[in-house]
Structure formats: C-alpha cells, structure tokens
Design a protein that fits this description.
Strand 3 and strand 4 form a beta hairpin. It is globular and about 60 Å long. The longest helix is centred in the middle third of the chain and has 20 residues. By secondary structure, the protein is mainly alpha-helical. It has a single domain, classed as Jann2411-like fold, CATH 1.10.3300. It is built from 6 helices and 6 strands. Helix 3 packs across helix 4. The strands form 3 sheets. Strands 1-2 form a two-stranded antiparallel ribbon. A two-stranded antiparallel ribbon has the order 3-4. The protein has a two-stranded antiparallel sheet with strand order 5-6.
C-alpha cells in the first residue's frame, strides 16, 4: 500500500481542520488558525486577511477532493480558492534542492498542494461523499477506488440506505 508524502499529509490535515460530524472547526477564528499553524510547524504570524484566505483555500481544497470521489464540485468555491492562490508568494526555481519556495503559511500549504498534484498523489486524496461526514482521507488501495472514509461507518450507512430504497421501490 502506498504511503502519502509529507506534503500530502499537510494538505490532508489542513482540509480536515473542519469536522462536520463533530461540528468543530479548528479555523473558526484567527486564534484557531494561529494555533493550527503552530501545531503543524508553520509560521503563525497571520492576520485577519490570512484567516479569510485560509478558509477559502480550505473550502476549495475540500471541494477538489470531493470531485476526486466522483462528485460534482461547486465551481464557485473552486474559483474563490483559485483567487487566493493567485496572490500567494510562491516561487518556482530550477534548483533541484528547492524547486518550490513559499513565503508564509498559506503559500507553504499551496506549495504542498502543488507537490501533491505534481507527484500524482492528489488522486489518492478524497473527501467522503457522505455529506454528514465529509472527512478527507488517503486512498491507499492499489486500484484507487476507495469511496468511503470508513466502510464500517459511512460505507455501511450508504449500503443500508440503498437497501432500504430498493425495498421501498419493490
């Protein structure tokens, strides 16, 4: 089973700063963003503008990762995240040691996404299609066909709903 890179793990952790089932959001305020960044070894000297950009970037990443699971993404959410990316201080270099230089925590997260995309790992990051869950997970299966964050929970719920629907129609 393939293992995610550090860059991919950072993207996954950032995307999972919101927990739909628990109704918690690590980025609910500026202090929460600072705390999360610090906990992940990133610069935490951010302001209110960074806070709003972080939430837009996270929403866009989560939307992209839901699309990895065959769902239709909200293009408006993706466009807002793209606008955030347009203004992040990110530099690409021909240096083999540091081909991607990022200044600031959101640029570091964007660089992690760029690395994840460049290596193809982005296809293994998915958001659970159960909207009551919406957890982002790593699909480590060889076929890359894992659909649910957990077959025991969300996958089972989907199967039970599908079974009940089939019984209703017969």
């Amino acid at each position: 089973m393939a293992e995610p890179s550090r860059a991919t793990l950072l993207v996954e952790a950032f995307a999972n700063t919101i927990d739909v089932e628990e109704a918690t959001d690590a980025l609910s305020d500026l202090a929460g963003l600072r705390s999360w960044l610090s906990d992940h070894g990133l610069p935490s000297d951010v302001d209110e503008r960074d806070f709003h950009q972080a939430r837009l970037l996270r929403a866009g990443l989560r939307e992209r990762l839901l699309a990895n699971n065959g769902e239709e993404p909200d293009e408006r959410v993706l466009a807002e995240a793209e606008r955030v990316l347009d203004y992040l201080p990110l530099t690409v270099s021909l240096s083999v040691e540091t081909p991607l230089a990022a200044e600031g925590p959101l640029a570091i997260i964007a660089a992690a996404w760029a690395t994840t995309a460049a290596t193809g790992e982005w296809q293994r990051l998915k958001r659970c299609p159960n909207h009551a869950c919406a957890w982002v997970f790593w699909d480590g299966t060889r076929s890359r066909t894992r659909r649910w964050c957990s077959m025991r929970v969300c996958g089972n719920r989907a199967k039970v709903r599908a079974h009940a629907e089939r019984r209703r129609t017969t």
